[in-house]
């Protein structure tokens, strides 16, 4: 295994625009208006679909309100059928990782001639077909900053993983107030998800100094704020701390690709080997 140190090349991708802070949700609508987009597809679970007004959207807004937790291929296909019909100029993921992951696929697959099976794996997606805005409502997956989507294959119950730079959001709007309604058990589970992303990134043998900063700070934030958010779901500072930890966890999870010019570059991915303990993903 190659040794990773400060001299090792690495490339970090992030959404071009990131808005963070309590009460910022409607910035997504403002960005959509600025771009002049009027055909809008919101991808949400039932809970978030019922409060889509928080995004401040105007125009021809279609809400796909049926994203299931750990979405499967039929759930994705129902969404893609809607997207093919309305041909959105912009797709907005509004929910947890389940909604955001499927929003990514709805921004690249409809009209492309590619199916989900064609794009499983790294960088198989042909291109981006609609702008993409991500608005997380849980604090866990960090999907808003990432290039991956996970969809359950009902035949095998394993997850199909798609990774593509074309699925990177144009804008991520992280409004921690949107997470105030997350029940304690989901707060705990999603907080541990963010922690796991950070711990994996830091303990991985391929850990890179560029990422260590995010990993360590994400771990610190979860340690400080997860007990508070579980004890009192209305603690806005704790919710904001976890939203930030989740965002950092998303950076840790790997919108990081080797520079194209590298002859045998490092490929950043969640740990398959660890310098401390085997990961248990
Ligand atoms: N893309 C990535 O890098 C990445 C990383 C980790 C996990 N994932 C995927 O993300 C999915 C899990 O995402 P998740 O953990 O965010 O859960 P989720 O999106 O499935 O949501 C969990 C539940 O919480 C509800 N919910 C969401 N926001 C809420 C809110 N603000 N208030 C009340 N209820 C709310 C949802 O309706 C749902 O029932 C899985 O499919 C997993 O494979 C993706």
Describe this structure in words.
It is a single chain. This protein is α/β, with parallel strands linked by helices and 281 residues long. The chain has 2 domains: 17-178, 3-Layer(aba) Sandwich (Rossmann fold), CATH 3.40.50; 184-272, Dehydroquinate synthase-like, alpha domain, CATH 1.20.1090. It contains 8 helices and 11 strands. The chain is globular. Residues 255-281 have low confidence and may be disordered.
Radius of gyration from the CA trace? 18 Å
In percent terms, what proportion of residues is strand?
A: 15-25%
Alpha-beta content class: alpha/beta
Q: How many β-strand runs? A: 11
Regions with little confidence, pLDDT below 50 for 5+ residues: 255-281
Helix-residue proportion: 25-40%
CATH top level assignment of the largest domain: Alpha Beta
Query: What gap, in angstroms, lies between the N and C termini?
Result: 21 Å
What is the strand and helix layout of this fold?
Layout: E1 11-12, E2 17-20, H1 27-34, E3 39-44, H2 46-49, E4 60-64, H3 73-86, E5 90-95, H4 97-108, H5 116-119, E6 121-122, E7 131-136, E8 148-153, E9 158-163, E10 171-174, H6 184-203, H7 209-231, H8 236-253, E11 256-257
Parallel strand pairs: 2-10, 3-4, 3-5, 5-7, 6-9, 7-10
Antiparallel strand pairs: 1-11, 8-9
The protein binds nicotinamide-adenine-dinucleotide.
